[in-house]
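Notes, Module 5: Reading structure tokens.

Key idea: the token line is not a picture. It is a compressed description, and you learn to read it the same way you learned to read a sequence, by spotting repeated patterns. We will look at two proteins. The first is printed below with its tokens.
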Amino acid sequence: MIQNKNGRHDQVVAAIKKMPFPVHNKEFVGRQVCTVDNNGDFLVAVVPFDDFIDYGMKTRAVRGVTRALMRLTPCGELQ
């Protein structure tokens, strides 16, 4: 599930990852923000987002946490 927060470069993303028995399924809800800096590098930040997500069914999932900060530098004009 993806929900636009403040435009197409600021999104709240929710996913449930199935885990093998005896581990409970994991639910991840995070906010992804993308931008381009002055050098032309792409910056992507992912932080946990504390929000209730209604999947329309009972999930019994445990909330997981993901944090990421990425800088993507183009190697050439077409890459």
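Here is the second protein, with the sequence above and the tokens below, as before.
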Amino acid sequence: MITGLGRFVANRFLGFPRGTNLSSYTQLCVAFFLSATLHFSGDFVYEKRIPSRSFKFFLLQPAVIAFEDFFIYITRSLFRRGGRAGKPWMVVVVRVVGYCWVTLWLCLTLPMWLDELNRLGFSSSDRRPIGQFLLNQWNRWA
């Protein structure tokens, strides 16, 4: 359903041709907006004092995915320019770096989403020094 709605908004409502970056990124934003809305409703029912935490988390994700796509585009163009596009070990390295990036990004942003529950006493987790530092940085930016 989310894919269908994203395609509808991108291709029919906004008129972006299928297969273009505008269409893909619009569909991505629609999917994350719907996910944020669904999580927002759950947050609001669960605790009315913390409704914005889902929007902060889920609407940040498409921006980071767009950044990742730009980085991948630059990396691929550099590999092609150097004539190294066909080496299998480079594909493996890029894939491993990608998995590490996704794991790091979740470690960086998940405390922002979940800390409101800890602060209100619904959950307790030991953040350790690094987790606490990251959370303090998010709170400074928010």
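Summary for the second protein:
- The mean pLDDT is 78.
- Helices lie at 2-13, 21-46, 53-81, 88-120, 128-141.
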